[in-house]
Amino acid sequence: MNEFHKHATAREVAEQISAGMLAKETPDVFAEDSAYITPFALPGAPARIEGRTAIMEHMRAVASSEAAKALEIQEVIPTFHEGKDPEIVVMQFKVKGKSNVTGEAFELDSSIGVLKVHRGKIVEWHDYPNIIGGSAAGGTLRQLAAMLSQIG
Predict the structure, then answer these.
(1) In the chain, what's the furthest Cα-to-Cα distance?
(2) Would you say 55 and 34 are in contact if contact means Cβ atoms under 8 Å apart?
(3) Which of 49, 76, 104, 109 is least surrounded by Cβ atoms within 10 Å, i.e. has the fewest?
(4) SS3 for the chain, per residue?
(5) Strand order in 48-50's β-sheet?
(6) What is the dihedral of CA 119, 36, 70, 80, to 10 degrees?
(7) pLDDT tens for residues 56-95?
(8) How much is the average pLDDT of 113-138?
């Protein structure tokens, strides 16, 4: 690669993720040695996944899960926050759509993510999804509560 090759910026990578949310697809934007971190993961779910292949497999599993199928996302409204470090971007997502369980429309502040991007690839993604809000929007709060009551 020559010195004039332009890599995607952190903001551009975040924009790719935003576009993929509507299609329930994760773009191939992870470095080989990247980490996906969910500090508030549900019990039994991984709080850290390492490596591009493992992260992509996890993202595909999440996108095809029953929880994801409960939500028909019709619009993604992103907000991006950039600071002094050009490798870091904070992304907030609001989604609008319809519950495939109840048939009702929803508007949801779905997640906040902090990306560290180096040479156009994510090296670290700290993801803070709104699990309870998503479950409420999807009409699956009872199922979530039942699953959580089994832990302990």
Answers:
(1) 56
(2) yes
(3) 104
(4) CCCCCCCCCHHHHHHHHHHHHHHCCCCCCEEEEEEEECCCCCCCCCCEEECHHHHHHHHHHHHCCHHHHCEEEEEEEEEEEECCCCCEEEEEEEEEEEECCCCCEEEEEEEEEEEEEECCEEEEEEEEECHHHHHHHHCCHHHHHHHHHCCC
(5) 48-50, 30-37, 121-129, 105-118, 88-99, 71-82
(6) -50
(7) 999 999 888 888 889 999 999 999 999 999 999 999 999 9
(8) 96
Reading the block at residue 18, the tokens are 């935003």
What CATH number was assigned to the domain covering residues 10-149?
3.10.450.50
Domain residues of the chain, as ranges? 10-149
Q: What pTM, to 2 d.p., does this model score?
A: 0.89
C-alpha 126/C-alpha 102 separation (Å) is 31
More confident residue, 2 or 104: 104
